[in-house]
Design goal:
Length: 88
């Protein structure tokens, strides 16, 4: 149950970061949420970029949260595979 809370919390931080990015960079909130999730999930298309120093700082924070999210997902997947193979 704690894992679900952590994942949900990280996703919410990415979403909140996107909304803050919208205000700082003065772009539409849908575009900023798109930017936030693309950055957070470490895809980074580059079609939306920060232009202010604060926007760059927010994008770095979103990236860091995304790296944490990716690491947790890899850990969960690895644990599930280990448990599956131990049952045999």
């Amino acid at each position: 149950m704690a894992i679900k809370s952590i994942i949900l919390g990280l996703l919410m931080l990415i979403l909140i970061g996107g909304l803050i990015f919208s205000v700082v960079e003065d772009i539409h909130y849908i575009d900023s949420i798109y930017f936030s999730f693309i950055t957070g999930f470490t895809v980074g298309y580059g079609d939306i970029v920060p232009h202010t120093h604060v926007g760059r700082l927010i994008s770095v924070m979103i990236s860091f949260i995304g790296i944490l999210f990716t690491g947790i997902m890899v850990g969960i997947s690895t644990r599930a595979i280990i448990i599956t193979f131990k049952k045999d």
